[in-house]
Amino acid sequence: MADNKVGGPTYRVAVAVIGGGAAGLSAALTLARARRAVIVIDAGEPRNAPSAGVHGFLSRDGISPAGLVAAGRQEVERYGGVVLPGRAEAVERVDSGFEISLADGRTVAARRLLFATGVVDELPDIPGLRDRWGRDVLHCPYCHGWEIRDQPVGVLATGEMALHQVQLFRQWTSDLVLFTHTGVDLTDEQAEQLAARGVRVVPGEVVGLEVTDDQLTGVRLADGTVVPRSAVTVASRLRVDYRLLTKLGVPVTSHPSGMAEQVEADPTGRTPIPGVWAAGNLTNPFGQVMAAAAAGTMAAAAVNGDLAEEDTADAVRRHRAAAGEDDSGLSVHHGPADVAAMVSQEFWDERYGSVDRVWSGNPNPQLVTVATELPAGTACDVGAGEGADAIWLAGRGWEVTAVDVSAVALRRGAEQAATAGDDVAGRLTWQPADLRTWDPGPDRFDLVTAQFMHLPDPDRAMLHRRLVAAVRPGGTLLIVGHHPSDLDVPGLRRPRMRDLLFTAEQVAAVLDPQEWASIRAETVPRPGIDPDGNPVTVHDAVLHAVRQR
After folding, report:
1. CA gap 270, 443 in Å, rounded
2. What's the predicted TM-score (pTM) here?
C-alpha cells in the first residue's frame, strides 16, 4: 500500500476520502466492504463538534458527535479501511490518478478522490456568539428543537431566513422573540404573521450575550437592555473550503438561498472533473447528519462502479496480452502465470497434495526470535501452511488460530499436532479461508503473525490492514515476506512476479505511529541455497510492531 519517499510515506489506495465526518466515513465503509483499498484523511474538525448530541439519526439519536465518529472509524477499520489523521494541504492530478500532500509530509496516491470536508458556519461578529455555538446558540430546529422545548428562545435575524426560523421554532416553544438586529426590516404582512403566532419583536442591534455559570441567560442590546433568553438561534452562512477543489477545477457555486456555497455535482456526487466526487454538506449544504451519511454511501457506490469499469477495461487488455495479442492485435510474448490462480485454494491444495511435505516442519526463525521473548497468550497465524509455526507456538502455551487457504495443508498440520499430544493439539484451531476475503471480525490477539504470505495488491494491503486491526492493545504484529530484491538473484526459487513481493516499509505505512509503542521495518539478510546448491544471500522483509497498551 505504501513506499517511502522524501518527506514521508506514500499511501497507495484505490480511493482517498478527504473528510472524516458522517459522509466521509459512510463512503469509506461502503468502499471497504466493496473490497476497495480506501483511506480517510481526517483533519478532526467536525462541524457539529460543539453539540452535545446528534439527533434525528435513526438508531443513533443522542449519540455524541465524537462517539459517532469513533464508531464510524471502527467500522471502517473492521473492513480494512484506513483512517489517517491529518490535513490535506495540496492535491494534483498525476498519471495514475491523484496525489494528495498532507501537512506533515505524508502523501496519498489514489485512483479516485471523494471530498467530504463539509462546510464552515460563519456567524455574526457578536462577542460570545461563537463560544456558545452548538450549545445554547443554535441553528437547526430538527437538531436542537426538542432540547430547548418550552424555553425562552430568541431568533437573531441575519437576513430573511430569520422569518423561516421563527415559523419553525414556534413549533417547540411559545416564548419566542425575534431580534431584528441588522438583518431584517419587517413588512406589515410579516409583522401581522408574527403577532398572530405570539412572537414578540425586539428592535435594535444585538451587541452581546449574558452568561451565568456557563449558561446563556440573556441577549444584550446596544442600548444596554438585556432580554432574558435560555437559547438563541441564528442562521449561519455556510462556507466551503474550496482551495483543493478549485485547484482541480471543481466548480463551487452559490446556493439558491444565498446562505451557502455548494459544490457542483450530479445526484451521485460526481463532479464535472473526471475521477472526483463530493458528498455531504458540500453538495447539500443544509442536509442533516443522516442525509450526509446517505450521500456518502451513494457517492461510494458510484465511485466503485466507475473503478469497476476501469478494472474491466484493464482486464480485457491483460486478457488479450495473455492470449498473444495486444490492443492492436499484434502478437506479443506470453506474460507470467495468472496470479489469481497462484493464490487460489485449488492451486495450493494441488501443491500440498502432490508431495508428502512441502516445508521443513521447523518454525520460521523470525517468529522464534520475537515470540521467545513474549509471554504466552492468544495468537493468529495467517498463511499457516502445514502448521509448523502454529504448532511451535502451541507447544509454548499459546492458544493459536491457524488460517490458510489450503484445507490439505491444515489437515496435515492438525495430524502433526496430534502427534505432539492433546495438550498441544487442544490449543490449536485450524481455519480454512481465502485470505483475499478472510476477516478475523471482532477477534483480537496478543500476537498476529504472517510468515511469507504473499498476495497481489490490493488484496495484500487490505489483508495487512485487517491483521493490524486484529492486534489487541499491548499485542505484537509480525509480518515477514520475501523481499523484492530476491528477484534479482539468478535462479532463486521465487514467483517471478514482483507484485507478489513487498518491503517492510510498505507494511509499516499502514500503521498509525500514535497507536504503536514501537515499529521496526527491516530488510534482513540470511543465507540461502540456489537451485544448483550454491550458497547465496537472500533477504526477508520484516515488520515487527507492538501496539500501545
Report:
1. 37
2. 0.58
